[in-house]
UniProtKB/TrEMBL annotation:
Domain notes: The last Arg residue of the ACP-binding site is essential for the weak association between ACP/AcpP and FabH.
Compartments, record wording: Cytoplasm
Protein name: Beta-ketoacyl-[acyl-carrier-protein] synthase III
Chain ranges of the Beta-ketoacyl-[acyl-carrier-protein] synthase III N-terminal domain: 108-189
Keyword Transferase appears in the UniProt entry: yes
Main localization category: cytoplasm
Keyword hit for S-adenosyl-L-methionine: no
Broad class of enzyme this protein falls into: transferase
Organism: Sphingobacterium kyonggiense
Subunit (UniProt): Homodimer.
Length: 348
């Protein structure tokens, strides 16, 4: 069995900065409300046309590939995590493979929302461990701004999310004790509807507590209707308090699971990179684990919640700032829609 290491990492965020005050142009909200509840000061939005989930992923991937001292032609598998794909199908993995001129390698999309990158990393780790692949590109990228409700009706959700991308290249390592030590993945579908975008979908709302009464929906027209846009049901739904309550339990749990598996304790962590869901959640997790400020990295203040991109963006930024050094114990952890959650423990 091989051990895998992150050989290169990169991130890309769009140039368009939207502060909390900028959002007051579209909805009734305030800088004070957003900062107090989420810690977010500003976020980035991609160009409406021309900048896509894939194109942002490509920019992050170029940096990761260069830092891994390899080339796009040498990548032998692609895993792309996103909840905001360019098309309903096919996935962004194949679009990235095309854009980057890669060989006819396998390309897999992971749709696990906020925990998508940790899931994708875990899959990549298994392929490296078995020796099946030697150079895997793992990308997390989101263009949330295309499908948020920017009216006052949607403010509880729309102020939280931002656009961006992060990427890593995974390779085998022979350095003893280095690389990904373990990954841990979980789900609980009982609350699947508490953080979700129901449409477009083939269920036509079947699982919802109050199933919509559809007027005569024609065969072939159940994905998205004009009414869904008008009544807001076309936009993401979030029961914020339910998410918060579950997240503050599952984050410490899955981090604890990773530490226990490796006979380590929370004080051994040099850097925790939590998914940037909400600064209050990260602070709660930090307190529960008894970590100091310099053991946890947060950048949600600048980028908002970028879902599958948040962990690789934060990891890369922390690394670029010199906060992750050779031999450090780094813990990645994520929680999100599904609910799904996971962790990865890495000896850098
Ligand atoms: N600006 C101003 N007021 C807002 C607002 C906004 N952006 N969004 C909601 N409000 C209002 C509500 O309308 C409500 O007003 P009312 O009391 O007059 O009805 C009030 O603020 C409280 O709303 P509520 O939804 O109960 O707020 P909350 O304290 O639960 O905070 C969240 C909302 C979303 C910030 C909070 O629940 C949260 O952080 N949850 C976790 C979300 C998360 O991490 N998601 C990512 C998942 S990976």
């Amino acid at each position: 069995m091989f051990q895998s290491k992150i050989a290169g990492l990169g991130y890309y965020v769009p140039k368009n900065v939207y502060t909390n005050n900028d959002l007051t142009r579209f909805m009734e909200t305030s800088d004070e409300w957003i900062q107090e509840r989420t810690g977010i000061k500003e976020r980035r939005y991609a160009d409406r046309i021309g900048e896509t989930t894939t194109s942002m992923g490509v920019e992050a991937a170029k940096i990761a590939i260069e830092r891994a001292n390899t080339t796009a032609e040498e990548i032998d598998f692609v895993i792309f995590a996103t909840l905001s794909p360019d098309y309903y199908f096919p996935g962004c993995g194949v679009l990235l493979q095309r854009e980057m001129g890669m060989k006819e390698v396998g390309a897999l999309d992971v749709r696990n929302q906020c925990s998508g990158f940790v899931y994708a990393l875990s899959i990549a780790d298994q392929f490296i461990k078995t020796g099946m692949y030697k150079n895997i590109l793992v990308v997390g990228s989101e263009k949330h701004s295309f499908a948020l409700d920017f009216s006052t009706r949607g403010r509880a959700v729309s102020v939280i999310f931002g656009d961006g991308a992060g990427a890593v290249v995974l390779q085998p390592t022979t350095e003893d004790g280095k690389g990904i030590l373990s990954t841990h993945l979980h789900s609980d579908g009982a609350d699947a509807e508490k953080l979700a975008m129901y449409y477009p979908g083939a269920s036509a709302g079947y699982y919802l507590e109050e199933m919509p009464e559809w007027p005569d929906v024609e065969l072939g027209q159940m994905l998205m209707t004009k009414e869904m846009l008008e009544d807001g049901s076309a936009f993401p739904y979030m029961d914020g308090q339910a998410v918060f309550k579950k997240a503050v339990v599952k984050f410490p749990e899955v981090i604890g699971e990773a530490l226990a598996k490796n006979n380590l304790k929370s004080t051994d962590i040099n850097m925790l990179i939590p998914h940037q869901a909400n600064l209050r959640i990260s602070q709660f997790v930090q307190k529960t684990l008894g970590l100091n400020d310099d053991q946890v990295f947060n950048n949600i203040q600048k980028y908002g919640n970028t879902t599958a991109a948040s962990v690789p963006i934060a990891l890369c930024e922390a690394w670029e700032e010199g906060k992750i050094k050779d031999g450090d114990l780094v813990c990645l952890a994520a929680f999100g829609a599904g609910f799904t959650w996971g962790s990865a423990l890495i000896r850098w």
